[in-house]
Every structure is written in structure tokens, then in C-alpha cells.
Amino acid sequence: xxxxxxxxxxxxxxxFRPEYFPEGQELTxxxxxxxxxxxxxxxFGDERDxxxxxxxxxxxxxxxFVSGNHENYDxxxxxxxxxxxGGRVQPIRP
Length: 94
Known about the structure:
Blueprint: E1 3-6, E2 32-36, H1 50-57, E3 62-66, H2 73-76, E4 82-84, E5 87-89
Parallel strand pairs: 1-2, 2-3
Antiparallel strand pairs: 4-5
């Protein structure tokens, strides 16, 4: 497993596009890009988030995030808690 880290996307995921992150094309779903704080992908808590979240799901790698101070915690609390790699997570997409 490879792990990359970034932060503060605030809902703008351009940095994961191949022209900005060519290494991502070599990764698999077993590899993780860890987004550290201010993810912003679950902002509205409804279908308005779907386009961006579905796009992230379609990337060849797994995107995981740590919540920051600019998140919609009312929306995030609605996601179930599961175990993943020895820790507790809230999957946003399968």
C-alpha cells in the first residue's frame, strides 16, 4: 500500500486530476491519498455533493480524509461508523 498526503481541498479536487497528480494513475484502490483537514466533499449533505463524491470514487486510488474545522459536521454525523485497517472510519462511498 502506498500513502500520499495532502490537505485543504475545500471541495476543490482538481489536484487529483492526472495532469496535476500523474502518480495517481499508477495507484490502485489499495493505495490511499489521505486528505488532511478541510475536505469539503460533504458540504451540503445531499445530492448536490454526489457529482464530486462520485468522481472521487471513480479515481484509481482510495481517497480518505480527516475532518477539519471547515466541514459540515451535521451531514457527516449521518454516515455509519465502520472498522477499516484497524481504525474507525465513516465511509462516504463504498
